[in-house]
């Protein structure tokens, strides 16, 4: 796996899950996660190197298993 690949995978999966939930990026960021829209956009773009604990928290807030963000 290339460097940064897992960051892109998490971002792609977050985008897919968000769309399946029919949430705007702003609503997901502000109402569900309590994060800035800019930060969530960075995650979806694969620019943020999240810790595993952050991935767990993100999955919990979305109501999905953390593996759904990593596969």
UniProtKB/TrEMBL annotation:
<dbReference type="InterPro" id="IPR010982">
    <property type="entry name" value="Lambda_DNA-bd_dom_sf"/>
</dbReference>
<dbReference type="Pfam" id="PF01381">
    <property type="entry name" value="HTH_3"/>
</dbReference>
<dbReference type="GO" id="GO:0003677">
    <property type="term" value="F:DNA binding"/>
</dbReference>
<dbReference type="InterPro" id="IPR001387">
    <property type="entry name" value="Cro/C1-type_HTH"/>
</dbReference>
<protein>
    <submittedName>
        <fullName>Helix-turn-helix transcriptional regulator</fullName>
    </submittedName>
</protein>
<feature type="domain" description="HTH cro/C1-type">
    <location>
        <begin position="14"/>
        <end position="69"/>
    </location>
</feature>
């Amino acid at each position: 796996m290339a460097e940064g690949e897992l960051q892109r995978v998490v971002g792609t999966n977050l985008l897919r899950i968000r769309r399946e939930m029919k949430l705007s990026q702003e609503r997901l960021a502000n109402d569900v996660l309590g994060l800035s829209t800019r930060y969530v956009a960075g995650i979806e773009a694969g620019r943020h190197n999240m810790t595993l604990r952050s991935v767990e928290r993100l999955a919990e807030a979305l109501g999905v298993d953390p593996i759904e963000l990593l596969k």
